[in-house]
Amino acid sequence: MSTDTTQLFRIHFEDGAKIDVAAKDAATANKAALARHDGIIRKTKIVREK
User: Fold this and answer.
1) Rounded to 5 degrees, what angle do the CA atoms 15, 18, 34 make?
2) Is 4 helix (H, G, I), strand (E, B) or coil?
3) Phi-psi bin for 26: left (phi > 0), alpha (psi -120 to 50), beta?
Protein backbone atom coordinates (compact mmCIF):
# COMPACT_ATOMS: atom_id res chain seq x y z
CA MET A 1 0.00 0.00 0.00
CA SER A 2 1.26 3.46 -0.87
CA THR A 3 1.93 5.90 1.97
CA ASP A 4 0.10 8.78 0.25
CA THR A 5 -3.33 7.12 0.42
CA THR A 6 -5.78 7.32 3.28
CA GLN A 7 -7.74 4.48 4.82
CA LEU A 8 -10.98 4.57 6.75
CA PHE A 9 -10.54 3.67 10.43
CA ARG A 10 -13.31 3.05 12.96
CA ILE A 11 -12.31 4.21 16.45
CA HIS A 12 -14.17 2.59 19.37
CA PHE A 13 -14.31 4.44 22.69
CA GLU A 14 -14.82 3.01 26.18
CA ASP A 15 -18.21 4.76 26.50
CA GLY A 16 -19.54 2.96 23.40
CA ALA A 17 -19.09 5.79 20.92
CA LYS A 18 -17.72 4.96 17.46
CA ILE A 19 -16.16 7.45 15.07
CA ASP A 20 -15.04 6.83 11.48
CA VAL A 21 -11.90 8.73 10.50
CA ALA A 22 -9.97 8.82 7.21
CA ALA A 23 -6.23 8.89 7.88
CA LYS A 24 -2.86 7.63 6.63
CA ASP A 25 -2.28 5.39 9.65
CA ALA A 26 -3.82 4.28 12.94
CA ALA A 27 -1.87 6.75 15.08
CA THR A 28 -3.08 9.69 13.00
CA ALA A 29 -6.64 8.34 13.11
CA ASN A 30 -6.48 8.08 16.92
CA LYS A 31 -5.33 11.70 17.23
CA ALA A 32 -8.12 12.91 14.95
CA ALA A 33 -10.74 10.91 16.87
CA LEU A 34 -9.55 12.29 20.21
CA ALA A 35 -9.89 15.81 18.82
CA ARG A 36 -13.56 15.07 18.02
CA HIS A 37 -14.52 13.05 21.13
CA ASP A 38 -13.13 12.99 24.66
CA GLY A 39 -12.68 9.50 26.02
CA ILE A 40 -10.53 6.42 26.23
CA ILE A 41 -9.89 4.60 22.96
CA ARG A 42 -10.42 0.83 23.26
CA LYS A 43 -10.07 -0.32 19.63
CA THR A 44 -8.91 0.98 16.29
CA LYS A 45 -9.99 -1.02 13.24
CA ILE A 46 -9.62 -0.63 9.50
CA VAL A 47 -13.03 -0.49 7.80
CA ARG A 48 -12.93 -3.09 5.04
CA GLU A 49 -14.90 -2.70 1.83
CA LYS A 50 -17.42 -5.43 1.08
Assistant:
1) 80
2) coil
3) alpha
The Cβ of residue 29 has, within 10 Å, a number of other Cβ atoms equal to 25
Q: Domains of the chain: which residue ranges?
A: 7-46
* pLDDT digit string, tens, across residues 1-50: 555 799 999 999 999 999 999 999 999 999 999 999 999 999 999 999 87
Query: Residue 43 belongs to what H/E stretch?
Result: strand 41-46
Q: What is the pLDDT of residue 40?
A: 97
- Asked if 10 contacts 47 with a C-beta cutoff of 8 angstroms, the reply is yes
| Residue length of the chain | 50
